[in-house]
Design goal:
By secondary structure, the chain is an alpha+beta fold. The chain has 2 helices and 2 strands; from the N terminus they run ββαα. The chain has a two-stranded antiparallel ribbon. The termini are far apart.
Length: about 100
């Protein structure tokens, strides 16, 4: 079921449609708003002429980098678990008559 979610960025409201669960869409939107504010706070003192577009790009890059790190860590974790399970299975196979 299509629903609408509204977020505020740079003092302006943006409404978008979502087919996913509303609480999930709101959670994602809130995460973006927090990341944008974090980038604004990091750069507002250093650069007075940073544009809204630049802030959005930097926020998107931060989110993407975090996503890549999570995927990498998950992959390493799953590989480690797989190796451990294979050792356990081998040990069980060797000791079960």
């Amino acid at each position: 079921m299509e629903q609408h979610v509204t977020i505020d960025l740079f003092g302006q409201s943006y409404t978008f449609k979502t087919d996913s669960e509303v609480f999930r869409a709101v959670e994602v939107a809130d995460f973006l708003v927090k990341e944008v504010k974090k980038v604004e706070n990091q750069h507002s003192v250093k650069t007075l002429d940073i544009t809204k577009f630049t802030v959005l790009i930097l926020a998107a890059l931060n989110i993407t980098n975090e996503n890549f790190e999570i995927k990498k860590n998950d992959s390493v974790f799953l590989n480690d678990i797989s190796q451990r399970l294979n050792r356990i299975i081998s040990t069980l196979d060797e000791n079960i008559v």
